[in-house]
Amino acid sequence: MSQNVLFLRNVDIYQEKNMVLSNVNLEVNHGEFIYIIGKTGSGKSSLMKTLYADLPLKQGQASIVDFDLATLKESNIPYLRRKIGIVFQDFKLLPDRSINDNMLFVLKATGWKDKVEMQQKIDEVLEKVDMKASSFKMPHQLSGGEQQRVAIARALLNDPELILADEPTGNLDPQTSVEVMAVLRKINENGKTVIMATHDYALIMKFPGKTLKCEGGTIFEVVQRAV
């Protein structure tokens, strides 16, 4: 395993045919917590989508969890995503099955076979986000904050090296956002690398950390007082 969980050099980020970020150079080491900030349309989500191979890398060098994005074949994308936990703004839980069955679906899709081991893993990750007691509920029976906790638990199922959180508090009220943020920071303190795209500057002030800003087609580090 390399020291870097993520390495980008001279990378251009495209959304379809439009270049949204140019000459991106970035290194993220294991165990770091990184914020990516910027206005809507500044390239945050396009960068995140490139990292989990939803958008192809067209220019530059990029390695993430020891996968080379420049040479990544489509058939290998599922293997990349097993090493990355992705948390979305809109949760993306399956509405027609319970929380426990949402988790089972992911484990089966990623090659787990043993029913006892699967249930143990589900209980473990739900316990980490304080949602084990609600595993029998359907997504619509949970609040937005509870659904996002479940989404974070889902991202932990395959013990990923990296968590990518794309606006994870975007649909939540301020208090719930703080609670979800605390869960993510705790996961980071337990050794997981986290990269979080957000436009919520209040959260960054409350939970300070290394902050990169997308602006004017570039990305650069900002000091805390300048956020």
Report on this structure.
Helices cover 32% and strands 27% of the residues. The protein has a domain of 156 residues: P-loop containing nucleotide triphosphate hydrolases (Rossmann fold, 3-Layer(aba) Sandwich). It has a six-stranded mixed beta sheet with strand order 6-7-8-3-9-10, sandwiched between helices. It has a four-stranded antiparallel beta sheet with strand order 2-1-4-5, covered by helices on one side. By secondary structure, it is an alpha/beta fold.
List the helices and strands and how they pair.
Blueprint: E1 4-15, E2 18-29, E3 33-37, H1 44-51, E4 59-64, E5 67-68, H2 77-82, E6 84-87, H3 99-109, H4 115-128, H5 144-155, E7 162-166, H6 174-189, E8 193-197, H7 201-206, E9 210-215, E10 218-222
Parallel strand pairs: 3-8, 3-9, 6-7, 7-8
Antiparallel strand pairs: 1-2, 1-4, 4-5, 9-10
